[in-house]
Specification:
The chain has 182 residues and is of the alpha+beta class. Helices cover 38% and strands 26% of the residues. It is built from 3 helices and 6 strands. The protein has helices at residues 3-32, 49-71, 85-101; strands at 104-107, 110-120, 125-133, 137-140, 155-165, 168-176. The longest helix has 30 residues, at 3-32. It starts with a helix and ends in a 6-residue tail after the last strand.
Amino acid sequence: MTTAGRAGRLVEPLRAGIAVVLVAAAVGLAGCTPGPAPKPTPTPLFTSEAEAFKAAEQAFGRFVDAKNQMQNGGDGVDPQEFLAGSALEDDIQSARDEDAGGTHIEGVSTVVRFTPKAFDPESRAVDSVACLDISKSRVVDAQGKDVTPPTRQPVVALSIKTMPSRSSMRIFEISGSAEPCG
């Protein structure tokens, strides 16, 4: 037998042995390599209609509290954190209008009643009506003069739509309501 013939017969078993070792190493490494980390399942903000109503009321209450703090010089408070959609757009526009007109609001508003009206299980939206006592607030011009309209009602009714967004309940719409508050 020639040297080349003997080398060929030695190379084939060597190749097969190397292949077996590589396959075993790959299987061994695959067993030690952790799989992808499990993704956390987001915890729903609420699991029932009653919890949705409560979350909506709390979101509106926190918004009113933040608005009161901001109106009275509180730093680090941003009521817009509780808003999204048209409610956020309207609040931004209202702030621009106040700046342009040289007016601002002083005092506090208080939620005197919050009534949930409907819950949409698909969108997780809550429609509510809130009665807001605004009698302890006033509109003030750039000179510090009270320019609150004399015909302004002391308690106003607001239609509110809240929905979950970014792991918290946010207010998406706020508008006047014809529902009686008295």
